[in-house]
Amino acid sequence: MDLAFFAASLSIFRLQKTIGTHTLRKTFGYHAFQQSVDITIIQRLLNHSSPRITLAYIGITQDDLGRGCL
User: Fold this and answer.
1) Chain-centroid distance, C-alpha 24
2) How far is CA 63 from the centre of its chain?
C-alpha cells in the first residue's frame, strides 16, 4: 500500500490517531493468528526468533491460549 494513499485514507475517515507501520505489522500478526494461521508462519513473516516472542508481540497471553482464543 502506498504511504500517501494510507495517509489520505486516515484523513478521509477522520482518524486522528497516528498509525504507523509498527501498528500495521502487529495488527496483521494478530488478525492472521485469529484466522488460524500457524504461529510459526507468522513468526517467520515477522522475522522473530521464536513463536513465544511472536505471541507476546501480538498480545496473545497464556490465558488466551488456554481459553481457546482462536
Assistant:
1) 6
2) 19
pLDDT digits (tens, 9 = 90+) for 1-44: 567 777 777 778 777 667 778 888 999 999 999 999 999 999 99
For residue 24, what is its C-alpha cell? 500495521
Q: Which residues contact 55 (CB under 8 A, 6 or more apart)?
A: 33, 39, 61, 65
Residues in CB range of 59: below 8 A, 6 or more apart:
26, 30
Residue ranges with strand state E in 1-70: none
This prediction has a pTM of: 0.71
